[in-house]
Design goal:
The structure holds 2 protein chains of 2 kinds.
Chain A: E1 2-5, H1 14-24, E2 31-34, H2 47-59, E3 63-67, H3 75-85, E4 91-94, H4 97-103, E5 109-111, H5 120-129, E6 131-135, H6 142-151, E7 157-164, E8 167-170, H7 175-179, E9 198-201, E10 207-212, E11 215-218, E12 222-223, H8 228-234, E13 238-241, H9 248-259, H10 265-275
Parallel strand pairs in A: 1-2, 1-13, 2-3, 3-4, 4-5, 5-6, 6-7, 7-13
Antiparallel strand pairs in A: 7-12, 8-11, 9-10, 10-11
Chain B: E1 9-13, H1 17-25, E2 30-33, H2 51-63, E3 67-72, H3 81-94, E4 98-101, H4 104-113, E5 119-121, H5 130-140, E6 144-146, H6 153-162, E7 166-174, H7 185-190, H8 194-197, E8 206-211, E9 214-219, E10 222-227, E11 243-244, E12 250-251, E13 259-261, H9 266-272, E14 276-279, H10 286-305, H11 314-322, E15 329-330
Helix pairs in contact in B: 1-2, 1-10
Chain lengths: ~300, ~350
């Protein structure tokens, strides 16, 4: 099984982004997805800057994939999409069907988690257009995955998000700006100060969602560390972690160690719970329940 | 006077046979409906049509010269894929005028097995730009797209100017603030979403409680809102709850309860060349359908006759506000400052 680092969901200053990916060069991940996927107004890094990061990661032995914007409305957004899709060098993660249309029959691509791949018929369509990998949509669970892995075209690889806050919804409206009572047009890119988004709490203080510009994420990260053995048994080719500020390197190493069988999934979960004692997680979607639920990994289960 | 490109089809919701009749009797050019299961995005208890009712409804509509569109706009998973393909077969044999689909796998099945069935791309298909529309047109020969409620008026125009297919927009009704087809807030909290089960914030997960702090609504245990004595309580749709983001300020962090209302911009929509205008609300009563259809019919007729001198009548606006969420209305994303 390969390990990937999904596209950065948050808006970080350029120096922070480049410093982060400089570190990634030395991490045991195989695939790195790069680019802005949430908001077209976030332009700390231009396409050329991302390509420079891509160059360095490639030199460090990583497979680089350029990720595309999830919600495309304006003509300017479409022309940026066209540039990415015709970059001629790197594979592209299509996060909107418009990207699939541009790549169709021209370049192999990854069908990202925001392409609604809920059944084998859809996977066959995507594969016939040139998809070589698909990322499972976040609200799907283990029995659907099992069926899809069995029924999909054999050459189509499967990738599953195993760690990170789940992007749950997108809007034309910016919720970060709204929290400060300013319109999106006058946002002044204020989300740059929220390195892991803004917690949205219920009136009782439950951390329900995370506000990240036009995107809402889960309040706590999804964590499938305890399910890694099952994912490997199923034949899932790639496990994805979603970048966040904090101890990302430690998380990457824990997942790597399970893949390399240095630890069993259970041992790794114990280590993680010791190390991140205050952290809460969710894995309900995997268990086909409310996504926010957390089920402890059961030995032998 | 600017010439209007086409007659605009008024598409109204039919959650039941009485609602279907109310829509058609009050001037709907088409109604949209769903079967009584999770194959459509309004899979609510007591709503929708079994086969006999569907047959009756379709006969009624066709007798009066109206069209029937059938929504099969959820995303089937492998365990139950046959339920959706059977629904397609039923739709075909019932002689509906079009099916409204969102799932590419199902569209592929439709083009292979029911090549004569007219396909519309559901709002749940999340097509917000011309390349996305072109994809569905190229692969599945869709004939119409229903646009998500996230585009500005200028963006809608740009889509229409470049679209290879007809464009349908929402004209009135409850407002999704999120891109339709891409929202898993409901399944995150309840396990069921529009994509997977055809529901959002499902009624079975709702609990009301009276407390010393006021009346509270919960969704699968999660506190969605708390109302003071004099406040009207609304249905606890997740995105319309009051939450805290920074500090202790409690506010509508995503959207206030309000309805989309496009009466004000009908002439602009018309001149842009929209093919159809849709009224949301299959879950609403026949009385709602009657009221909204009546107003929209009158407005469209006025606007078609003389778009340059059109303005929404005060009694239309009042009638629609009366049936609106929160008794208020907005142009939503069509109006830039809303964004």
């Amino acid at each position: 099984m390969k390990l990937s680092l999904g596209p950065l969901q948050y808006f970080w200053p350029k120096e922070k982004v480049t410093a982060f990916y400089k570190q990634v060069e030395g991490w045991p991940v195989d695939i790195v997805y790069l680019g802005e996927v949430v908001c077209a107004k976030r332009r700390e890094l231009k396409l050329e800057d991302w390509l420079e990061v891509a160059e360095q990661l490639t030199a460090a032995g990583k497979e680089v994939v350029l990720s595309t914007l999830i919600l495309l409305e304006a003509d300017s957004e479409l022309s940026r999409l066209e540039k990415i899709c015709s970059n001629g060098r790197y594979s592209v993660e299509a996060n909107d069907i418009s990207a699939v249309h541009l790549l169709d029959g021209k370049n192999n691509f990854v069908a990202g988690p925001h392409i609604n791949s809920y059944n084998a018929g859809t996977l066959r369509v995507l594969h016939s257009c040139g998809a070589e990998r698909w990322v499972m949509p976040f609200e799907l669970g283990q029995s659907t995955l099992q069926r899809l892995v069995a029924e999909k075209p054999a050459a189509l690889e499967t990738e599953v998000l195993v760690y990170g806050r789940l992007p749950l919804s997108f809007s034309a409206r910016c919720f970060t700006a709204r929290a400060d009572n300013v319109p999106k047009d006058q946002c002044e890119l204020r989300c740059i100060s929220d390195e892991n988004g803004l917690p949205l709490q219920t009136q009782e203080g439950q951390e329900l969602f995370t506000v990240n510009g036009i995107q809402l994420q889960s309040g706590v990260p999804c964590n499938l560390l305890g399910e890694m053995d099952m994912l490997m048994d199923m034949g899932v080719e790639v496990a994805r972690l979603s970048p966040e500020a904090g101890a990302m390197d430690e998380l990457v190493i824990l997942f790597r160690d399970v893949i390399d069988q240095k630890y069993s999934a259970q041992e790794a979960v114990d280590i993680m719970q010791d190390r991140f004692a205050q952290q809460e997680w969710c894995n309900g979607f995997w268990h086909e329940e409310a996504g926010m639920n957390w089920k402890e990994h059961q030995l032998g289960a | 006077m600017v010439a209007v490109k086409n007659k605009i089809e008024l598409v109204c919701p039919a959650g039941s046979l009485p609602a279907l009749r109310a829509a058609i009797d009050n001037g709907a050019d088409a109604v949209y409906m769903g079967f009584r299961d999770d194959t459509n995005a309004r899979n609510f208890p007591g709503l929708n049509f079994d086969e006999a009712e569907a047959r009756k409804g379709i006969d009624y509509a066709h007798d009066k010269g109206s069209k029937v569109l059938l929504a099969l706009n959820t995303y089937p998973q492998p365990q139950h894929f046959e339920r959706w393909t059977q629904a397609l077969a039923h739709a075909d044999s019932l002689g509906v005028d079009a099916v409204i689909l969102a799932d590419p796998g199902l569209m592929q099945h439709a083009t292979e097995h029911f090549p004569d069935l007219r396909l519309h791309l559901s709002v749940q298909g999340s097509a917000t730009n011309l390349h996305a529309i072109a994809f569905y047109h190229k692969h599945f020969n869709i004939q119409r797209v229903v646009l998500p409620r996230v585009l500005s008026l200028r963006q809608v125009k740009s889509v229409i100017d470049n679209s290879p297919v007809e464009v349908e927009v929402f004209g009135f009704g409850s407002l999704c603030v999120m891109v339709e087809g891409r929202c898993a807030l409901s399944s995150y909290v309840t396990g069921e979403s529009p994509n997977t089960c055809g529901v959002c914030s499902p009624a079975k997960a709702v609990r009301w409680e009276e407390t010393p702090q006021g009346r509270q609504s919960r969704l699968n245990g999660v506190l969605i809102d708390r109302y003071q004595k004099d406040e009207a309580a609304g249905y606890p749709t997740l995105c319309k709850g009051r939450f805290k983001v920074k500090g202790d300020d409690v506010f509508y962090a995503m959207e206030e309860p309000t309805s989309l209302n496009t009466l004000e911009i009908l002439p602009e929509l018309m001149k842009m060349g929209i093919a159809a205008i849709k009224v949301e609300g299959r879950q609403r009563s026949p009385a709602y359908v009657k009221q909204v259809t009546k107003v929209m019919r009158a407005a469209l007729d006025h606007c078609l006759q003389d778009p340059d001198n059109y303005s929404p009548a005060a009694d239309w606006v009042a009638a629609l506000d009366h049936v609106s969420e929160g008794r208020s209305h907005t142009l939503g994303a069509l109006h830039r400052p809303w964004q």
